[in-house]
Every structure is written in C-alpha cells, then in structure tokens.
C-alpha cells in the first residue's frame, strides 16, 4: 500500500542517491555492497565469493517466503557484482584488439586443403593461443555479468508481483460498523501504551525533579512557539513585503518568492520551540518523544502546502498569473492547500506511529478511511478549480496553450480519482484506494512546485537580460522549464509507487544503450558524435567565412563561382565532419548495412524527387549555367536569381515576389538566360501608323528616334521595318540592340514618348483600331532598373 510515509521515504532515498558518498556509487547501494568490493577493485573478481552469493540469491528467489527486505538487500549485492563484472569485461581490450588486427594481417586461413607456409602457420597459431588466453577472463566476466543481471531481473519481477498482490488485497470494509471494533481496539492500545510510558517515567523521582527544573523554560518556549505558529505567517508576510520595498522593482518577481519563505520558517521554528524542549523534561517515552521530534516536520508540511497554495492561488492578480480564476476561487484554493497540508502532516504522524507500534493492516485500513475521504474531498475541490481554469482559457483563447491543457488534464484526473478512491476504500480495497488518492495529491503538489520553479527561472532570465517585463515565450527559460519537467519524471514515478531500484535499472539500461547489428548505440557514443560533429561543423563554417570574405574576393572568379566554391567546401566539410564523428563514436558502418539498404529503397521510392533536386543543385553549382544575379525565364516565370541552394533556386520576379523553383526544372527543362554571358539584347518596339501615311517619312522619323537612343548599339545599327498592314493601319517595328538589356522597359517608354512627340510635329497619325493593336507584340518585356 502506498502511504504518505512511503512517499517521504522515497524522496529521502532520492536525496541519498544523489548525495551519497563517492559520487559514482549511490549511497543506497553502498550499504549493500559486497564485502569483497575493495579486493575486486585491485584485481580480478573473486569468483568463489560470487558463486556463494549467486547460489544464495537463487535460493531466495525460489523461496516464496523470503521477505522483501531480504530480496532488496540481496539485489544490492547483485548490483555491485554486476558492476564489477561489467568493468572486468573491458580487461585486456586494447591487447585483444591488437591481436585481432595482427591475425587479420596474416590473411584468412587457406581453404580447400591448400597448405600455408610454416612460418605464417606457426605465427597464426601463436597469436590465436595468446588471444584465447586473454579472452578467457573476459568470457568468464561476461557469463557472470549475465547471471547477475538475470538474478536482478528475477528479484525485480518478484517484488513487482508482491506489490501488485498487496494493492489488490481486500481488507474489512470500513463502512461496516461491525469492523469498527478493530480500529477502536488499536487506538485504545496505543493510547494506553503512551499513557503507561508517561506514567512509568513520572513515577521516577529524578524525572519529576527534572520536570520541575525545566518547567519554567518549557512554558516560556511553549508560549513563544504558540505565538510563532499563530502569528508567524503574517509576520513573515510583512517581513517579505518590507524586503521587497527595499529592492528594485525588477527584482520583485524573484526576490518575492525567496522572501516569502519566511512565512514558512517562522511557524516551523514555533513547532521546534514546542517539541524539542518537552523532551528535556524526560516525561515522554519513546512514542511521545518520537511525536515531539516530528512536530517540526509537521510544521514544514502544513505551512509548506500553505506557501505553495499562496504561490499558485495568489491574493492579488498579477501579470503572468498561473491560474485564471476569480479572487473568490483563488481564496478557496489557498484554503484547500492549507487543509491538504494539515491532513498530510497528521496522516504522516499517524502512519509513523502505526507502523512503529505494529498496528494490524486491517485496523490501519479502517483508521485511514476518514483521512482518505477528507483527502478525496479536498482533491475533488482542487480538481474542479483546475478544470475551471482550463475552461476559462478555452473560452478566452481559440487555442489554449499546452500548459493550460495539461492543467485541465490534471484537474480532470483529480476529480475522477477523488470519486473513485473512497468508493474503492469503502468496498475493502484500501491499499488500491491509497495508491490512487495519496499519489494524486502529492503529484498536484509536485506540479505546483514545478510551476513555481519555472516562475523563478523566468524571473532570473528577465533579470539577466535586463528586461523589465517577464520573458514570456523566450527560448532559454522554456528549455530550462522543459529540462525541469524531465528531471521531475523520476519523482513522479516514485510518488506513484516505483522503487528506486526500478529507476536505477532503467538508468543502467539507458547508459548501456542498444545494439544495431554489431554497432552499440549509447548516450556516451551519441554525445561523442554530437561534440565531434559540432566541432567539425563550426570549423567548416569558419573556413567558408574566410573563403567568402577574404580569399575568393581577391581572385578573378565571379560571384556565382565564389558561391559555388563556398557551397562545395561546406558539403565536403559536413561530410568529413560526419565521418570523423562516426569514427570517434565507434560506430561500425558495416553493421548498419541492412539499415542503409532499407534507406536506399526508401530513397528510391519516396525520396527520388528530393535526391533528383539535390543532384541537380550540385550540377548547377559545378557547371553554373545559371548564377545568382542572372535574369532568367523558366516555366513561364521571369526574374532574377537570388539564391541557389541544394534543393531549389529562389527567383525574384519583377513584381518583387519570390518563386521557389526545383533545381530539376533548371537542369531538365528549357531555361532562357538573358544575362549569363553578356548584357546586350535586342529590343523590338512595334508601331501602328494610320493607313495612308507616307511610309518613307515614317521610316525616316523612326530611324532618327532609334539612333538618338543612348543605349542603342550602332554596330549593328538600328533598323526600321514595315512588317505588315491591316485595312486601316500600317505596322512598323523599330529593332535595336541595347548595351544593357536590363533597361529595355525604360528605353521602350522613352522611345514611345519620342514617337508621340515627333509624329505630332510631322503630322503623322497613329492607328487606334483594335485589329492594329492586336498585331502589336512587344518583345523582351522584362527587367528594368526600377
């Protein structure tokens, strides 16, 4: 059965694991380490001692009556042995690798009865003998490692099965009045034992003398302690507000959280002043003394929950408030947080006392029922508050944030558990009910602590970057909050009944990694790969930057060629970085042949367009039929090439819109490049003249206009042609070669202005008929300086 004490002990175990001596071996394991561990660190494993330990472990796993504590202790021994054998597997690793390389250098043994030279055969036999001798301790360590690992898994399986059986154990129904006598008897016995302890000690003259001597001091400290418990919370709040007034405003979000801890410290000191001096009187026995010492922990639990409620349900509305609730509902949340603290504290004291004094499980189940019902009521109310927040955000926001959805999910789960738990306990499934209600309460508390920590991180980040407002959606505090959430997962697992050994086994498996063929993928190898690749990538970028800014500008290469060289260096650098990282991580590419084959099939079917575009991008960068800055036309799109990447090319049209063209279209399709090798280009200006005009006069006027254009090339000279006519119009064309085709639109406009001016001066009329206009086909519409 999962009880509050179990959760507290689990948290204490986590601290012991993290802060245990030695840094590398958890303190919990150190208590169960094999006595031969010190000898094993200096030499080969003691296989005789291991054999005795393994046989004892096998006997314990086969005996269904073995206590859980004995199995847990044995598991600690096995974990230590397994670590020893794992280290022994790497003995002579370098020498074994060298011998294998030497044997490979001799070549494969001759086949089909062919003879090998005597010297090579003798050398091969000698190396194989050395290899077999060096591999013997490695093989023995591997066999022992697998045996220890199997025994550990067997113990874990048995403990999990026992835990499941305990959860499904049926106890007397607490709602049946016939069963109340068990609980009443247990309470009477423990009360009588406490009274007998006090009575026995009071009968001693020296105890009465000490009591009278310490009584004035005890009374004074008792009164002070009561005062701190009663008024310490408000005094701590005033003290925190005073400190906030002495600090700059931008410090308040962070400093206010730490200053508010005084609201917890003062009442806890009050509990200490009450509990500790009473022990000096000598009147209390073991049980009473234990309860007196536990008063400080009681104060921490009660006011810790109250402090957490104040942070989650603040009195005043502030920017970035966690829950979107009305002041009345926030006050309700603070009250229920205080009630949860009181229930948790007294339930923990009762659990400690009942376990130490051996109260039967049946009696504990009945005595715990009222407490479980109260926990469920408070859990139900807090769950509804969380659901109200999620609903209010869902109405206000079209798409609630992930945090709001998570809060709503927790609230819904809390309501369901609060309803289910008491029903299960009433039917006799007290252990299962406790395994639902108590972890749900502590999970809400841990979730609140996480939100407070994230709030602290946001405030610290705002201070570091010197921002007056909260960072909001900044990346750094978001990543830190995500890391805190991941780090809290083991705590959630412990709260919900996981054992420390389960978590340690998962961590061991995670560190060991997994195998793909002959390749071992582990976190250490992945980290090595990431570091080496990052270094290679940064060096590649540095080389690219040096080439692009310092070296290549001093050569005769054009901009397109420079970009091609820089891009090629980047691809080669990334490829070499990946190879170096793979080699440093010890990844055997031969073992990934099957995976590579499967990927090649996927590329052939699903990624063929991407691969085709990639190859086309390489061809573009090498052959350079198109370069950045060229004016091209492809697929009916005209524009200037802005960037050429591996997969696609970005073209900016003359309307200032960007068009992404796959590189395959530039290689396999028809592309018109107006400015690749020179900027000269032909301009054709069609002109429709009214029927009946003097054609030679029109030709002379148009030729004068063309020759007067500054951008027109005189060799070959411009020409004026009568290309056709309609019933009411004569169709002329001015054809000229421009020095810079990018200016053809502005040149066309200037020529049209001069045509209108000269025709007006010469008395030549233009044709405005629809048929004549239909014959006009402007050629070369495209770029301009604008």
Q: What separation lies between the terminal Cα atoms? A: 80 Å
Average the pLDDT over all residues and give the rounded result.
Answer: 80
Q: What's the helix count?
A: 27
Structural class, from secondary structure content? alpha+beta
Assign an overall shape.
flat
Total beta strand runs: 10
Please provide a brief summary of the model:
The chain has 27 helices and ten strands.
Note down, in words, how this protein is organized.
The model is unreliable at 1-33, 35-41 and 779-786 (pLDDT under 50). By secondary structure, the chain is α+β, with helices and mostly antiparallel strands. A hairpin with a 2-residue loop joins strand 3 and strand 4 (637-644). The strands form three sheets. The chain has a five-stranded antiparallel sheet. The protein is 68% helix and 8% strand. It has helices spanning 4-19, 27-31, 37-42, 47-62, 68-88, 93-105, 118-167, 180-202, 205-246, 252-259, 262-280, 286-293, 295-312, 327-356, 361-396, 402-426, 430-464, 475-495, 500-512, 523-551, 559-585, 593-605, 608-623, 663-668, 695-707, 744-762, 770-774, and strands at residues 514-516, 519-521, 631-634, 637-644, 648-652, 658-662, 671-673, 681-690, 719-726, 729-738.
